[in-house]
Amino acid sequence: MSSHQEFTEFVAARGTSLFRIAHLTCRSRDEAEDVLQSALEKAYRNWGRLREGSDPEPYVRRIIVNTAISRARRQAILQILSTHAPPDTPAPDTLAGVELRQILMIGLRALTPRQRAVLVLRFFEDLTEAQAAGILGCSVGTVKSQTSKALARLRALIGADLLEEALPHVEP
């Protein structure tokens, strides 16, 4: 049986249960359908690994919940931004990039000053760990640990998907 066929059978057998999870974690039926579709796309891309001797349903459930949380977080942040938007908003085609930068800036402001400095030096100024350590007057190990903690905090605040989109050269 092909991987595609196995995936199709899985969705046919468990789709109702998966939709129920999505619907309970989302605000509307439409949003639940979008979340479920996104989750199934992610699961399909990894189906070869998932089906090797294990039940893929818990993994797909986790994707659904994480996707719903990420969407809710993004919508909440965008709601906050829209209530504080400046009167001159950019053209719609550039709005997504502006919103992403604003979300990233909100996340950066929530970090400690040292974590923020490390991320700025490493990913915005594109300095090496050694160069950042020299500027901050600390060891390379401190730069590494602060980078790791800062990225973990940003992922928790703005979501891994948004962080990857904002800083594509950051490893997940």
Automatic annotation (TrEMBL):
TM annotation in the entry: none
Coiled-coil ranges (or none): none
InterPro entries associated with the record: RNA_pol_sigma-70-like, RNA_pol_sigma-70_dom, RNA_pol_sigma-E_actinobac, RNA_pol_sigma70_r2, RNA_pol_sigma70_r4_t2, RNA_pol_sigma_r2, RNA_pol_sigma_r3/r4-like, Tscrpt_reg_LuxR_C
Organism of origin: Streptosporangium lutulentum
Family: Belongs to the sigma-70 factor family. ECF subfamily.
Boundaries of every HTH luxR-type domain copy: 108-166
Protein name as annotated: RNA polymerase sigma-70 factor (Sigma-E family)
Keyword line: DNA-binding, Sigma factor, Transcription, Transcription regulation
